[in-house]
Design brief:
119 residues; single chain; 4-stranded antiparallel beta sheet
């Protein structure tokens, strides 16, 4: 069973930076696509950034050039460096892990960490 534990959420002023981390349990991390999603009040959950097992990354247009996703397969962690934060980045951020397990697609979520961007 996979468990994902996020950390790093905080209150930060506009223009500031935060680094989110997600620690994953289990043996499937290195062959998983890892992602960060966020959900603001009254809005649907949206993809922020993802990184494949091969290290290819993808970003939402709204965060390109400001956020960077990275992974460490030796430590089973995925990080999200967030710079130049804006009030509209305020949301609960969730870590996601997905991988193929035979014919099944496994999909796991963390409990979320709150990011608030406000002066």
């Amino acid at each position: 069973q996979v468990q994902l534990v996020e950390s790093g959420g905080d209150l930060v002023q506009p223009g500031g930076s935060l680094r989110l981390s997600c620690a994953a349990s289990g043996s499937a991390f290195s062959r998983s696509t890892m992602g960060w999603y966020r959900q603001a009040p009254g809005r649907q959950r949206e993809m922020v950034a993802s990184i494949t097992s091969g290290g290819n990354s993808d970003y939402a247009n709204s965060v390109k050039g400001r956020f960077t996703i990275s992974r460490d397969n030796g430590k089973n962690t995925v990080n999200l460096q967030m710079n130049s934060l804006k009030p509209e980045d305020t949301a609960v951020y969730y870590c996601n892990q997905r991988y193929s397990d035979g014919l099944l697609l496994r999909n796991y979520w963390g409990q979320g960490t709150q990011v608030t961007v406000s002066s």
